[in-house]
Amino acid sequence: MRSIRLFLPLLLLLLPLKGCKVPDVNPFAKATTEMTSALTLGLDHATTQLGLTTKQKLAPAQLQQLQAQQKKLRQQAAAIQEILKALDAYSGTLVEVADANSKGKESINEAADALASISTALGPSVSLGIKGAAEGVKAISGYVQTIRTLSSLKKAVQPADAAIQRVATILQANFADLARIDSTAADIQEVIITDQNQLILQSYDDLQQRQTLADTMTAYIVAFENTAYKPSTPRRTQRLEQLLKSMKAIDKAVPAATSANPAQLSATLALLSKREAFWLQRATDVNRLRPRYEAVQAQLATIRTGSSQRRSLFAQSTHLVQVWARAHTSLKTAVLKESRSVSFQEVLVAAQELRSFIDKIETNKQ
Amino acid sequence: MPKIDWDNLLLLSEWADALMQLLAAAEDAIKSKNATQRQQANDMLKLYIKKSPIDAGPLDTIAAAAIIDVDIAVIEEALFRIGQRKDELQKQIQLIQGVTKQASSSAKELRLDGLKKAVDSTKTALEGLKAVNDDLSKSDSKLTKKLDKIVADLNSLEEE
Question: Where does the source fall among the domains of life (chain B) (predicted)?
Answer without folding.
Answer: Bacteria
